[in-house]
Amino acid sequence: MIRKIVCVGGAVVDFIYGVEQLPSVDGKFLATSFAESGGGMAANAAVIVSRLGAQAYWCGRLGDDDKGRIILSGLQSEGVDTSLSRLFTGAQSSHSLVLNDREGNRAIILYRSGAIDPDPGWLPLQEISSGDAVLADNRWVDGAVAALKAAAAKGLPGILDADGAGDKSSLPAVAAASHAIFSEPGLASLFGAGDPAAGLHEAARHSPFVAVTLGERGVLWFGHGNGMRHMPAFKIDAVETVGAGDIFHGAFTLALVEGCGEEVALRFASATAALKCGREGGRASFPSRREVEEFLRQN
């Protein structure tokens, strides 16, 4: 049975440069590699869902411009259905400059247009909630809340990718999610707690299952009365971490709807993200289902 997952939120074009180290002073620096790749939290999640064998839909907002059409074409080439998305006349699509150093550190400069109407009234909520799960990011909170509430009304899992927003705006989306998974900066910015465990305790007041990804320190999660738990990260030599969090959320959502419990789903997601971190090249480095399953057998 092919699962259907709708991913709601951001999509960008990434211009990715490999450098020996991230610049810390004014000057010129030589890039060691370059790749142009589609990116964005929900869009990347949709791509990995498709790579892992499910039917992925991307639903979001783009400018009616060349970059928007490149983004849609890139998603479609990965088998992602983009029929639930919308182009807005007069707006520019989001794009970013990404620097990756040889130790896996990164710097991202993102341009996001403020000209796209945030009103989610156009969202096709019946179609969004007609699959097996909804995955939303917090780059468009109004859209995330609408989509996650539609999933909850149908009894579907609603997963929130809660990366750093820099303010409290994501809280309504956390409250609408069945599973809220944070980056460490995202958790700290939303709940003001430098300690991830303390932050998760605060987050658990709003969502029944919460987790935070800690990079090489693994994953911490809390939910369903089971107390705080920790899963170590897989050991891998990281060369590019761009998109790893997006991949984690997409893989977790798919494993969850395939019938895995949260702990197994977290392990599957961790393995998928680890494989990506060991490679560079944007979406070209996203792993296949066979590669993930083989990696889990060996680890």
Protein described:
This protein is of the alpha/beta class. It has a single domain, classed as Ribokinase (UDP-N-acetylmuramoyl-L-alanine:D-glutamate ligase, 3-Layer(aba) Sandwich), CATH 3.40.1190. Helix content is 34%, strand content 24%. It contains ten helices and 14 strands. The strands form three sheets. The chain has an eight-stranded mixed β-sheet, with helices on both faces. β13 (219-223) and β14 (228-231) form a beta hairpin. α1 (41-51) packs across α8, α6 (184-191) crosses α7 (196-203) and α8 (244-257) runs antiparallel to α9 (262-277). It starts with a strand and ends with a helix.
How are strands sequenced across the largest beta sheet?
4-1-9-10-11-12-13-14
Provide the CATH top-level class: Alpha Beta
Shape: globular
The number of helical runs is 10
SS class? alpha/beta
Strand content: 15-25%
* The number of domains: 1
Succession of helices and strands = EEEHEEHEEEHEHEHEHHEEEHHH
Count of strand segments: 14
Helix content: 25-40%
Low-confidence stretches: none
> Could you tell me the mean pLDDT?
93
Q: In angstroms, what is the radius of gyration?
A: 18 Å
Largest sheet: 8 strands, mixed
The fourth-level CATH homologous superfamily is: Ribokinase
